[in-house]
């Protein structure tokens, strides 16, 4: 049995705590790599939701877990709006598999 | 094409032929695997995109609800209300094998079966907007978990497809032509050897006949 973690700024994710997900508030001006690494390696989370803004700071770390079976790291839009990073991540995996983005609209 | 140095012997020839056979069979199998993986991947990625657009829109609405809720009550009240959650979500991960890719299947259970346990506060000091906001977020949860499952599967499959494609290409464009070239080289060399033996024998026969009978 594992749990779900949510990483992001307080404003965007405090609601998830009510549902029973573990929320980790981060400050965008600090180095959040150690916290992220700790969460990924702890094995107690199989899904980690992360706001797009936070994800853009942890790009390299997230990339490392793409081909690992766990955890699943999923981008969600924050309170400040949708940056489109989540969809572009999907687009990237299409590009990786097919060779070019065939769903380009 | 530059040929790697091989010994032009029969043993080497039969070894190479076996190698070519295996390579061709492997190539065919891997090509089938790649095609099937690609078919499934495209199906899944289409679903992934649709679901993501939907979930993102819902999260936007939920966030708007939270902003609304926040505006009608004090920061402290909100903090206290959400300080100690009653509900907990557990995820049970099982794996499904799709063309040798282990894709995760997430199954979630909540600590208590009561759907109202998402409201971790008494209703006296909070606005009803907060209830709405929490409810709207709770409604997204199943979709969010499904999104996690599909998106992770897509990432894993994309990785596997890339690997398989590289293998197929390496077999098709390097391994198989190279082996064919080597086989051709050995065959030619052996044929040439045989012809030279033949002529040498004929020559020797001529010489012996000349010596014996004076032709």
Radius of gyration of chain A: 14 Å
Q: Structural class of the secondary elements of chain A?
A: alpha/beta
Structural class of chain B: mainly alpha
- Tell me roughly what share of residues is in helical segments of chain A: 40-55%
In oligomeric terms, what are we looking at?
A: heterodimer
CATH topology of chain B: Helix Hairpins
Description of the molecule:
The complex is a heterodimer of chains A (105) and B (215). Chain A is α/β, with parallel strands linked by helices. Chain A has six helices and four strands; from the N terminus they run E-H-H-E-H-E-H-H-E-H. Chain A has a four-stranded parallel beta sheet. Chain A is globular and about 40 Å long. Chain A starts with a strand and ends in a 7-residue tail after the last helix. The model of chain A has no long low-confidence stretch (mean pLDDT 82). Chain B has a single domain, classed as Helix Hairpins (Orthogonal Bundle), CATH 1.10.287.3240. In chain B, 72% of the residues lie in helices and 9% in strands. Chain B contains three helices and two strands. Chain B has a two-stranded antiparallel ribbon. The radius of gyration of chain B is 36 Å and the shape is rod-shaped. Chain B starts with 9 loop residues before the first helix and ends with a helix. The mean pLDDT of chain B is 87. The interface between A and B is large, with 38 and 58 residues.
In brief:
The complex is a heterodimer of chains A (105) and B (215). With 105 residues, chain A is an alpha/beta fold.
Name a few traits of the molecule.
heterodimer, A: 105 residues, alpha/beta, Rossmann fold, 6 helices, 41% helix, B: 215 residues, mainly alpha, Helix Hairpins, two-stranded antiparallel ribbon, 3 helices
């Amino acid at each position: 049995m594992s749990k779900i973690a949510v990483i992001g700024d307080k404003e965007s994710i405090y609601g998830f705590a009510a549902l029973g997900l573990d929320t980790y508030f981060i400050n965008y001006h600090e180095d959040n790599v150690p916290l992220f690494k700790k969460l990924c390696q702890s094995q107690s989370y199989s899904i980690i939701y992360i706001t797009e803004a936070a994800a853009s700071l942890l790009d390299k770390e997230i990339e490392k877990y793409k081909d690992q079976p766990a955890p699943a790291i999923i981008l969600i839009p924050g309170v400040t709006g949708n940056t489109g990073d989540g969809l572009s991540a999907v687009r990237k995996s299409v590009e990786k598999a097919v060779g070019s983005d065939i769903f380009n609209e | 094409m530059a040929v790697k140095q091989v010994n032009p012997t029969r043993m080497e020839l039969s070894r190479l032929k076996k190698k070519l056979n295996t390579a061709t069979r492997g190539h065919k199998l891997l090509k089938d695997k790649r095609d099937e993986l690609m078919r499934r991947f495209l199906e899944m990625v289409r679903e992934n995109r649709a679901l993501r657009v939907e979930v993102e829109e819902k999260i936007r609405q939920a966030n708007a609800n939270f902003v609304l809720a926040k505006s009608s009550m004090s920061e402290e009240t909100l903090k206290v209300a959400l300080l100690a959650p009653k509900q907990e979500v557990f995820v049970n991960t099982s794996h499904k094998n799709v063309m040798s890719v282990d894709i995760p299947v997430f199954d979630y259970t909540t600590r208590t079966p009561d759907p109202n346990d998402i409201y971790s506060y008494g209703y006296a000091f909070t606005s009803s907007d907060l209830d709405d906001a929490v409810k709207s977020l709770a409604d997204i949860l199943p979709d969010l978990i499904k999104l996690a499952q599909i998106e992770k599967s897509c990432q894993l499959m994309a990785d596997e497809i890339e690997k398989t494609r590289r293998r197929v290409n390496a077999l098709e464009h390097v391994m198989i032509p190279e082996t064919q070239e080597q086989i051709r080289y050995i065959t030619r060399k052996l044929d040439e050897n045989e012809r030279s033996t033949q002529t040498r024998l004929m020559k020797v026969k001529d010489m012996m006949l000349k010596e014996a009978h004076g032709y």
